[in-house]
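Standup notes
- DV: blocked on the single-chain target, sequence here:
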Amino acid sequence: MIQEKGSLSIHTENIFPIIKKWLYSEKDIFIRELISNSADAISKLKKLAAMGEARLEDDFRPRIEVIVDKEKQTLSINDNGIGMTDEEVRKYINQIAFSGAKDFIEKYHGKTDDQQIIGHFGLGFYSSFMVSDRVSIDTLSYREGAEAVHWESSGDTEYAMEPSDRRERGTLVTLKLDKDSQEFLDTWKLREIVKKYFEFLPYEIFLKEIPEKDQGKEKTETPINDTNPLWLKNPKDCTDEEYRKFYHQVFTDFNDPLFWIHINMDYPFNMKGIIYFPRLRHEFDTVQGKIKLYYNQVFVADNIKEVIPEFLLMLKGCLDCPDLPLNVSRSFLQNEGYVQKISAHITKKVADKLQLLFKKDREGYNKYWDDIHPFVKFGCMREDKFYDRVSDIIVYKTIHDKYVTLDEYLEPQKGKEEKRVYYVSDTRQQAQYIKMFKDNNLDAVILNSLIDPHFIGFMESRLDKVKFVCIDADIAGAIRDEGREPEEKEKKDLLEKAEKLFREAASRDNLKVSVESLKNETMPAIILLDEQSRRFREMSKTFGNTINPDLFPVEETLVLNLSNPLIRDIIRLYEDQDKKSDALFAAGYVYDLAVLNHKQLDPERMAKFIEKSNELLRRMTKTEAQSA
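- DV (later): unblocked, structure below
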């Protein structure tokens, strides 16, 4: 008959791990530890039965129960696993940090799959004292003739052991929750926590509440977990509908994913999972990805950057890596070469999937591009190997609603020493410039997302003699009508007169003015922005409120179109003292129109522009009246 009291034995060399264990950042971690212990107990029993060292009932069905008793303020975890003898309780419970899982693995090394045993440190059970005033264990070993044992402790170094009335093989751990942890008696909250960590545990988990709500009715039990997640199936046996259903189930996203990658490998390391490319509702969705990392179907954490390449965190998915320990430190992940191999392999799988889509379904790939381009661009900038694998399948949407690779866009410039990629950064603001390009059968790519200012600089650093130029930075060079260009002397003379006239009209002594003959005759003037100063300003916007973009003005140039008769007429009027005021009025109006074509005027400037418009109408009607 067991009847003893004593003090818990602490292995001094394991004091530091114990301290760390008590510093869990999430209070609910004790649930993960206790259910993991139950899963271990079942795994051990199944392994022993497979080796002929334990007997299982014909109708054996692994199960774990999470039991809530609000009246007694207790939370219990019950399993039908291997159980413990009184000797094993003394060894694995009374001696803190002596890992039962570790001892089991050492004893049966080479006879069983070590990676199926979750626990490694023997500390998980003691996390229960983080939320409890008292913890008890009732356990019965699988060994023939074993007696059930009851163990109890209040969280200090004292414990008590005595016989238990348990009749079923397995272990029941009961926590008398302290006052600060009563929230764990809420079955809805408890269900969320259990599903968070064990939604895909291979053994069924049942949540019960005492007294049972359905007392007196026919009992129907439904496990709260899915014991066979989709990633365990062979990819060729999975349907598109199953992939979509699993995505909706795990990520509660009602939108269907664009496509997915099913990872199923056993060599050189064991890893299974599914990575989804979600459909974006808006650009900021790119920061809301979630890659869930599992260990033998037990949830470990979201978005562990040491295992999952940073750019993949923009996606959604589940990865199960049994070769990683459940309780793993950041320092281990940072220094473990194996982890780096996992990261590199995931990167390769994603790049290979994109290559396959591009080559086998270019039209579908183009349709996906608006959703996946932020991820691809970010991945290129963050991972050299990823860029090397996908650089030839980066596509650009053009102002003609086509999707082209860089080589396809640059084909018309073949043979030129320096090639230019014209791009649009704001389709609304630059609408007039886009129209001019289209009218002249020219093309430009659309780069108007938050990541694009960085991506443009990155691409220029990678490409030899290829320059990205915004559509409103050098449009004159693209549509200049060289056949109408005046002689150099005449052009210089016109420029001097135009500078003086338009600086006075715009009240800007430092206004940069240029004169060009453009193919488009209808537009008298346009504004060009300096590419470098614009980029500096765009980059500054990424710092949010820490840098005021207005502190970095973009250098502007007013380009006067000599192909438009109005410009030459205004310059001639300016030389006539009697018509000088009319010339200044007209020049100011032309300048305002050019600015308005480029950007919205501020309220004060818009009010003055409206006044000028009214004055222009008044002058026109007065002239018409005099003619009549």
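- Follow-up: The CA atoms of residues 28 and 193 lie 7 Å apart.
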